[in-house]
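Chains adopt folds. We examine one example:
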Amino acid sequence: MSEEVLSDQSAAQQAFVRLATAKASGGRARANHEKWIAQPLIAELLQRFGAAVFVAQLTVDDIPTVWVQRKDVLDVLSFFCKEISSSFSMLYDLTVIDERLRKHRELQPPSDFTVVYTLLSVERNQFLRIKIPLQAEDAVTPSVVRLWKNANWYEREAWDMFGVRFEGHPNLRRILLPPTWQGHALRKDHPARATEMDPFSLSAERQDAEQEALRFNPEDWGMQPAHDDTDFMFLNLGPNHPSVHGVFRVVLQLDGEEIVEAVPDIGYHHRGAEKMGERQSWHSYIPYTDRIDYLGGVMNNLPYVLAVEKLAGIEVPERVKVIRIMLVELFRIASHLVFYGTFSQDIGQMSPVFYMFVDREKVFHIIEAISGGRMHPSWFRIGGVAHDLPKGWDRMVREFLDYMPPRLQHYDKMVMRNSIIRQRTRGIGSISTEEALEWGASGAMLRATGLNWDVRKKQPYSGYDQFEFDVPLGVNGDCYDRCSVRVEEMRQSLRIISQCLENMPEGPYKAKHKLTTPPPKERTMLDIETLIQHFTTVSWGPVIPAGEVCIPIEATKGMNSYYLVSDGNTMAYRTRIRTPSFAHLQMIPTMSRGLMIADLIAIIASIDFVMADVDR
């Protein structure tokens, strides 16, 4: 590129162009460029836009990652969403990285804040990552709500946490933090601990201001108090109501008993889980992951440790993979039993929840015997599990495998074949496959529409490709189908657990790798060097190489993942938690308009969410 052209561009644009033409620079840049250019998807990008629009970035997870300037972002994202064959119909995630303190950013454009879009094409079975570099004094980028409906909440979260503004957003206001909050909590200059802030005080004036901020104004929520000759009634469902399954509020606009509009209000359970992930060591953060989907137990550990292991280059033994899968599927059953019982209870049945919680206790009895904990055992470790399986584990698992199938058959008669349950749930809250993808739905929410998409099958992790199981599907995408899919998933989990029982490999329960945490203890009492290494690795955590990685898993409620950015330190530079429930609650207005309040209760029950999974 000529000096005359470069002189007409800003310093950031010049750096962007130089990186985009890295092929001519030789060395590492040349290797990066050639590996990037070899990916089939990139050929389509180059054919449509040319080489100067993009900057390549290689990541540890090998997800194609490209940088695009802000002026080109709408054209590029529209191309992927609507124009390209086998389009990227799902916005899987949208987040931001505060780059201002990051040291290892080789071959990346200059950026104070980076907006990260992660897209998914189910037809291609491929993820794609698009990055937009922004400067602190001009942290603005166009909204993509017109391309993907679920971008609404993701962009609100990005503004709430990082202060990035999205031009054209219909209602850019805080979503997780109170409207009176000062600052943007996930910026690096925002305090991470209460001890870093002034002592809290609540004067009479501040209390009045806080109360006034809570005043409900329909226009602020996109609602109209009246229309023609009709005066609408507004009803608060929650935030403390048994049927909303936690601290969750839905503001209803009603015409009689008919729902005209339903606006979900979240954030009451926000605990700063991502902020904590950036202040804890890699090892000590594991217990925090248990509390995301608090019904998923060690399943929450799995995407986190898989991502850290990928960054560290740790290959776990086969025994570890099978142990992990067995525990994960036990927790899937435990979580689905809670859903099954509360789903039937919300619709009006009282008995099933008591029977199903008895069965859940039997699952917890096995989990406790193996891990020492029940709901939150925090048992997975970087490189393995906390300890080996105890003697007698196989007998307990075998007894449960004999016990559970007849119970599920009994519940079919109690719930799934009950005429009232069918009348209350069939045809209620129906969504199509196209709508589900537009809203970022996954798990049973997506498979109930008939789409065969399960990460365990499509992109196997932790050895799932070695197991035989079926993917249950629905037809109508309604409340009944969402329940029936989860019921059948429990039977498939039993199949997987049975294969774990019959084919448990011998071998170590932890990888022999220097970054395994905690490291093997065999020699800690024999030489001081090993003891010191064990002490420092546990106390300070391992130093994980710089890089970026994201490994999605099929969690109890849908696709869950940790997008981790390491800056070559003892803790994550950026911890992004993508949870399925956050995406699913956005769909409530679409599923409930024109129905009755009782139908909304059935819809909320059929989604199967927990608020810790939403608010983090």
Summary: The two ends are 47 Å apart (CA to CA). The longest helix spans residues 318-347. Residues 1-9, 11-18, 21-25 have pLDDT under 50 and may be disordered.
